[in-house]
């Protein structure tokens, strides 16, 4: 598995992979020996994939295509070369300039007056061209010339790294071309320092990357990303820290990599700012993400959790870095993970010593929106009127995103949207806005597993919602529209139906005598039909998210005068919804 995909985590997710921070990530190179090289060269613009999202690694490459790739490695765009020695390459041929230049400087050659641009390139031909490009032709010729002398130099220059089992007389495919060119980028550009009995001695000077791309290389730990706060300071969106040093990056590409080991390639500007062109998780990062509900024990720098049918224990480094809801904590002993009711703990071993080096704690609050006060940045919960999300505009970090990753605004938030909120009051607010629903008839409820069934589909219910009495309102056989959060969890519901939410004016509300439980009669003027209706209440009634069990609570929630049946303000406008029995 090479890319991290958002999924509903019910068990631990283990990642032990080298994966690029960004790049094409082609579907047909995933889990192959070509993957890293294909993504690396694509990130630099040296090789490109197909329009269908593939890299076509097994497809052979022509001699003209190889010329084009070598020119991109050299970062050259020559034009205006007037003549060429090959009569099978016309001036309007797409690779004319590349073939003309490379042949003029002796990197590529043809056969007499023929170049055969559309013929497949062999490995012998490719390695010969690259050895010439690196400047080791003299030694290769002294060692026997084409092909063995050139192959010997190519091997010593590490161009054949990861190339076992190849027949060098066969056509080069795109996947292996990517691997060979990635090796070439790290090969030393020649300064022939001398010869030993068994071969050439390469210079320890600049590589192709350094000479042609002005690229440096850094290996370290990502210990700061956008949104992390230490000492009240938030990193900007397009900056990361690697071993404490700042680097500019593509915004959004690194945020999920806090605590990971990385090997990165960067360019440094005249003002000293370093911009990363490509990042690869060269060292194996072992990552465990544990749902808060699976915690069993945390003591003596160990965490034990339920992993399917068995318990598993992870050992923590005593110098572990801890980040909770975007903010670094001073020490592991200062935090009780059992405070987390909804959320998860991610533990990262970034040096393969079996000890977890980073702990990323996300405590998630869920809001089902009732109303939004845009001016004051306040969002009121539908099920708990006392629960208000205050997006403090002066906080160092406030971010709203849709579950698709697009930037969101408080003005875009609507009633019944579901918000997953990760926050540290006054400092950090990361809000994911979701507008997903699932509509159908409830066919089963599994209380022990917090599962609602609709036909063959099962939905996990958010822990906070399950703990509320609202779940008792859900009945098998009735049709609902469930409100889902970004994890796909059920966080609320509406009675399904196109006209289920009805605007009306409240005329009166009365308690029915001589009946057990909550018995209420409403008289309403339906603003859609223009008719007066009399409707009865269900066994429980929720007003503005407040759950009412008594007639007095209904009165209070509707802001009625205690001395009569008239609301404060005649003809109070409201929205109401009925259940399957046509009760409010």
Automatic annotation (TrEMBL):
It comes from the Bacteria. It holds the Pfam family SLH. Residues 23-80, 82-144 form the SLH domain. The keyword Repeat applies. It comes from Candidatus Avimonoglobus intestinipullorum. InterPro entries: SLH_dom. Keywords: Repeat. The lineage of its organism: Bacteria, Bacillati, Bacillota, Clostridia, Eubacteriales. This is S-layer homology domain-containing protein. The keyword Protease does not apply.
